[in-house]
Amino acid sequence: MPVVDSLMQSALRSVSSKQSEREMVWMQLQQMFENIQTTHLSELFGADSQRAEAFSLQVNSLFLDYSKNFISKDILAALIALAESYDIQNAIHQMMSGVHVNVTEDRAALHTALRLPETESLMVNAKNLVTDITEIRNKMFNFVEKLQSGAWLGATEQAITDVVNIGIGGSDLGPQMLTQALKPYWNTNLNVHFIANIDPVQFEAVTANLNPETTLFLLSSKSFTTSETLANAQLAKQWLENKLHTKQLTQHFVAITANPARAIAWGIAKEFVLPFWEWVGGRFSIWSSIGFPVALLIGVQGFKQFLEGGHDMDKHFSNSPLAENMPVLLALLGIWYRNFWQAPTHALCSYSYSLRRFADYIQQLDMESNGKSQQPNGDMVAKDTAPIIWGGEGTNAQHAFYQLLHQGRHFIPVDFIVAQNTKAKDKVQHQQLVINCLAQAKALMEGNRALQSADVSINQMQGNKPSNTLMLEALDPYALGQLIALYEHKVFVQGIIWQINSFDQPGVELGKKLADDLTNIVNGKEAKEPVDSSTMQLLRRINTASIN
């Protein structure tokens, strides 16, 4: 037998063996699900006084209690075996070393490199990426210092006081969420504002009370072709020209993009372009120059602490055994509930006013990454993928949707996120906030099954609702860096197990193309694709509205 044929047959046998191993583990977990689904969570605690300690894990500033889940040591072992059958540790190594894990776009996904300290190196194609990353990071820090010191002057020689970030998706959600979350750590008198929606109402509302002489716009777009961002950028240019009566607006625009040539062609001065790289996905870009608004408010040292938190989670993710690996554990619990318990949604409840946009941020991270039904080769995915991510801010959410969590028929796993300590002055009230979080997790798990009589049946809550509790030592830049990196890695692990590419977004791209086509129709041009009668009817109505 030729050597090539022998090697091919050996490879095929290896693939077949791996597939059989995976199928066996899936079947084993299905049997475990059937065995435990009639067990009440409180019974698991009653049978093991050490359960909380056994199913908890600390990584620096983050403590995870995952004991309120439908798991046992055997189930956990089977979930770990599932991860091993998909060679998760090798997948982690490939992502972090620069292998083109974004196979459909033939790119690496090296957002983790953005968190590397400048003293480290990462050689990709015989080049140390950290050198380039450090150069751009230092340029951003130089911009931060000039703005914070008042040295950055506008067209009329007045110091910039207000910075407006124009972006959408990852260029808006991340910076906006983080600037809100880290408000106690702001160390500047500068004001930062955000515009994302193409609806002109938002632009007009944000700029209504701004002084154009002291306003700087950040145009944040990876491709510098995003229609919403460019439309708002054009409004910004017109607003400045009309108010300042000049077209010399160099000092009023900074571009943050992976396509500097397009930004320069639009009119941005080369020295005011903060680039990043094609291998940085939009929803993973907060660690890059996209994080400029965050650095502007919390300062250079604060942003470095944020990067350090992310990097420390990367090290934990890379080096820890799967059974002690926080992102892997969260990912496997998600797989357990999505694919065996058929949970269609997952709730994130952050007990912090500062984290009021956190669920929105993770919604994009998770649903844009893993909301797919096809593998990169075009085959349909055999399992259900990303759940619907939603949530809210405790304690407000308790008076909104917790009724459904407690008594609804839906099966909804929950992540509770809370900080032990606060920079708020009223420590007693913060303690009450934390107590509310712990009480809700306990109530969801235990219910009040003691109420059995018919006259109180309306008040019965069966409990048996699983949850994780993530407790941060404090809501500071370092801990938030850890937290965001934790969810990034969770999503990646789930994508590997579902055998999808977590780093592309073809559904998003389709919507953009269709919007461009419909714009052609409105402007009297021919559509590239056939347009249905419903869409044409609605287009005629918006044309009439515009005329009136």
UniProtKB/TrEMBL annotation:
Its main location: cytoplasm. The active site is at E368 (proton donor), H399, K512. It holds the Pfam family PGI. It is an enzyme of class 5 (isomerase). GO terms for molecular function: carbohydrate derivative binding; glucose-6-phosphate isomerase activity; monosaccharide binding. It is found in: Cytoplasm. Keywords: Cytoplasm, Gluconeogenesis, Glycolysis, Isomerase. Pathway: Carbohydrate degradation; glycolysis; D-glyceraldehyde 3-phosphate and glycerone phosphate from D-glucose: step 2/4; Carbohydrate biosynthesis; gluconeogenesis. This is Glucose-6-phosphate isomerase. The gene is pgi.
